[in-house]
């Protein structure tokens, strides 16, 4: 199945058949970077466009970790994951990846959840206001390594918190040296 659970609140153009035309560049990168049997981490998974493309390409011997700080989006990811039984296993973790294990404030964007962000990110490019701020658990890439094993590829799209994310991954970056796809 190539179905994704989405909502208009996700602020994305996925309300139609033929997902391949939604973000051709992202699909091209997935096809180029994800090989059968690989372990892929999708940090800032949103509704899972990259997550499930990677799961399909990694196949039944691969695995994908989808990390999404928005509990509402993480629930959509879990619904989609239940449909994708012929692809790589997908684990959904509701957390924000940062430079510390702990907690942070997470803003739910007014204009749509695709621009949700950590409130403490200096110089965040997100505008348009927030409709709510919720506490979210934060984890480091190195903490994920201890629990989920070494990734072959990490895709990071965390609305301005990419540097925080990378700062929490010394072991991942120096010892594992995965390929990075970072917005």
Average of pLDDT? 88
- What is the SS-derived class? alpha/beta
> Beta-strand level of the residues, as a percent range?
15-25%
Number of E-state strands: 9
Largest sheet: 5 strands, parallel
Order of helices and strands: HEHEHEEEEEHEHHE
Uncertain runs: none
Q: Determine the fraction of residues in helical runs and give it as a percent range.
A: 25-40%
Number of helical runs? 6
What does this 3D model show about the protein?
- This protein has 183 residues and is of the alpha/beta class.
- Helix content is 28%, strand content 25%.
- It has six helices and nine strands; from the N terminus they run αβαβαβββββαβααβ.
- It has a five-stranded parallel beta sheet, covered by helices on one side. A four-stranded mixed beta sheet has the order 4-7-5-6.
- A hairpin with a 7-residue loop joins strand 5 (102-109) and strand 6.
- Helix 1 runs parallel beside helix 2 (49-58).
- The longest helix has 11 residues, at 71-81.
- The chain is globular, with a radius of gyration of 15 Å.
- It starts with 23 loop residues before the first helix and ends with a strand.
Write the topology of this structure.
Layout: H1 24-33, E1 39-43, H2 49-58, E2 63-67, H3 71-81, E3 89-93, E4 96-97, E5 102-109, E6 117-118, E7 130-139, H4 141-148, E8 153-156, H5 162-167, H6 170-176, E9 179-182
Parallel strand pairs: 1-2, 1-8, 2-3, 4-7, 8-9
Antiparallel strand pairs: 5-6, 5-7
Helix pairs in contact: 1-2
């Amino acid at each position: 199945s190539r179905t994704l659970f989405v909502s208009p609140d996700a602020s994305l153009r996925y309300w139609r058949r033929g997902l391949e035309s939604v973000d051709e560049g992202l699909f091209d990168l997935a096809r180029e970077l994800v090989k059968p049997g690989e372990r892929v981490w999708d940090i800032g998974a949103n509704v899972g466009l990259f997550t499930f493309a990677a799961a399909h390409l990694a196949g039944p011997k691969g695995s994908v970790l989808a990390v999404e700080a928005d509990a509402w989006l993480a629930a959509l990811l879990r619904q989609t994951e239940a449909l994708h039984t012929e692809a790589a296993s997908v684990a959904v973790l509701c957390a924000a990846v940062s430079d510390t294990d702990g907690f942070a404030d997470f803003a739910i964007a007014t204009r749509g959840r695709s621009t949700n962000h950590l409130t403490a990110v200096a110089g965040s490019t997100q505008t348009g206001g927030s409709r709510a701020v919720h506490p979210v658990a934060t984890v480091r890439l190195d903490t994920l390594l201890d629990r989920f094993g070494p990734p072959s590829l990490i895709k990071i799209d965390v609305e301005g918190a990419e540097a925080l994310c990378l700062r929490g991954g010394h072991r991942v970056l120096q010892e594992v040296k995965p390929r990075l796809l970072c917005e």
